[in-house]
Amino acid sequence: MNSVQILERLVRFATVSRDSNLDLVEFVRAFLAARGIESRLYPNEAGTKANLFASIGPPDTPGVLLSGHTDVVPVEGQRWSSDPFRLSERGGRLYARGAADMKGFIACALNAADRASRLELRTPLQLALSYDEEIGCVGVRSLLADMERWSARPRLAIVGEPTLLATAIGHKGKTALRAICHGRAAHSANPTRGVNAIHLACELVAATRAQQHDIEHRGARDAAYAVPHTTLHVGVIHGGTALNIVPARCELELEIRNLPAEAPGALVAALGTAAAQITAHVADPDARIELERTNDYPALDTAVGAEVVALVASLTGHREPIKVDFGSEAGLFSALGIPSVVCGPGSIEQAHKADEFIAREQLERCDAMLAALIGQLA
Question: Catalytic positions, please?
Fold first, then answer.
């Protein structure tokens, strides 16, 4: 099977993050087993999803890790020109959900594993496939927790998110927060007897916007990013039950995407201070704002002179590293002490959209990159 044929099989598995990825994982496991490659699974608590790790080459030896996530975003509400879970080729473009993000890279990685299985590698080629990346790099953490105990962790990692095969050495971190604003219910005919939780939430939104404005003008900057500063964003708001009731509760969901140079903890603390100031002047003991962190992952900041950067540049011919605004599991691998970059076929501009596609030429170039890698490992 070539990479296009493998991709055709992979996209048939509708591995939307809310659903299981086990059918895809079992396909990959069987694919590897047929070539004499053992793999290990790291299931979630419910047993409905799993990470997969495999290594080809000498055991207990640090290898080069190819990392990809198996989950995809939903297709509901999008107008597709063809079945999103069947590969369709038009004009050299391969259309399907996940074609670019990021089953195209996984297909090339499996094709590389097939080739590597027929060689005597001196340095291992390793694969890590994860679940629930799309909801905040959640699933891979069980694999990382085990990897932390290994005496021979991977020497370096290539995370194959779509970069048009440019080498990304940096991306922003992400912190997701929930703010629960508590007021006191009352009849809207006499609102002074209550505390309006939605009004408290609106004040917190205003404080968030003020903090964003301050960051834009006085915070850290890095011109290598399309958005050269840290961003704060309120994405979801829920509050109130009826128009004639002063609402007692309102929830906000907020997001911080921080440059590596800006510590997210300080930004969260500033939001906490703002929340306390908002309720300090309210003469009601029930009025408060609870701020809780619901998810986070670290930024990636790999040195230009790192071995992994030089290696990937030699494989792709892209000598100028880039930085990307979207996040990935590379920050987590890097935090574990595994030097990492993001480099994969396809464009992030196609991700999460209707008629997502990857160019056949991108798969061919990724195949060439991984063939050159195998040549070095052998």
Answer: 71, 133
